[in-house]
Write a structure and sequence with these properties.
The strands form two sheets. This protein has a seven-stranded mixed sheet with strand order 6-8-5-9-7-10-11. A four-stranded mixed sheet has the order 1-4-2-3. α1 packs across α3, α2 packs parallel to α6 and α4 packs across α5. It is α+β, with helices and mostly antiparallel strands. 29% of the residues lie in helices and 22% in strands. Bound molecules: magnesium ion. The site of magnesium ion (MG) has 4 residues, from α2. Magnesium ion (MG) binds next to α2.
Amino acid sequence: MGADSNRGRGSNTPAGELPRHIPLGSGGEFDAIRTLLDRWGKNAHRIGDDGALLDARESPNVVVSIDTSVENVHFRREWLNPEEIGYRAAAAALSDLAAMGATPLGMLVALTIPDSWRGALDAIGDGIGEAASSCNAPILGGDLSRGTELSLTFSVIGTAQHPLSRSLARPGDLVYMTGSVGGSLLALRDLQAGRQPDPAARRRFAHPVPRLAEAAWLARAGASAAVDVSDGLVADLGHLAAASGVAIRVHIERLSVVHGISAIDACRSGEEYELVVTTPRELDTREFQRVFGLDLTCIGTVTEGDAIVRTFLDGGEVEPPTGYLHFTPES
Ligand SMILES: [Mg+2]
């Protein structure tokens, strides 16, 4: 059988010849998907088949990751509007691609929508679409279900020319951090106390930015190990130290911290989605600032040791500021 006779049968079909979306059948779930597709426009690709078809021939390293955000576990309804809930959940998943030094190919979206949230689906979809657009990560497929709690799960897929790993920090490396930390915890404290946060802090909490282009720059510049700040800077450096079997020394006074929070507390601030990388070479922080308009700060060093983070403030060693956990219903 010649190649032409195989066209349209799947494995030999060039993805470029398939329709933009596969026509959907009738029913409430499909009506909801049609509504989302209308809102997503060009941010959704070839929805409607049983699976997404990807062309990853450009890179030998395909990176996949999955992340879930659940109401009353990761956020509260009164803290965020539906667009922010959709955006933030997608951004959190995409940040893991950044931590791997990957460029997104796209993402799959699984939503569990309680009846009480049904009217907000369009707005949640708009937030997801904003993340897809701003991160160049088209929505490639997904699933919709009814359920008792709002839940958003994203499988993100990317490719990495220079994959980063938590396990590649080596003694002698320098430790760098992108951006500033502290804003997320600052906002969370106000929200938990029933106060409206300062707009800049609220934006850090509600609208984190995955550092995807920054990660690619850092990987090209020689970064080897990386982690995104989701549990708190020192806690995440602890994961990196454990994965690499090294000790990490952090000089807290060097951190770039948002206004209104101490550097010690900023170390505990989770869901920041800044990147921390280690590298055997000094990085050009001015060039980074010029390209991205964002700080890149050398905050410490990697030494021989066993899975430990040691923190110093103004020359003296201090107890590592960990202990902040994600929002929980009890908190
Ligand atoms: Mg992560």
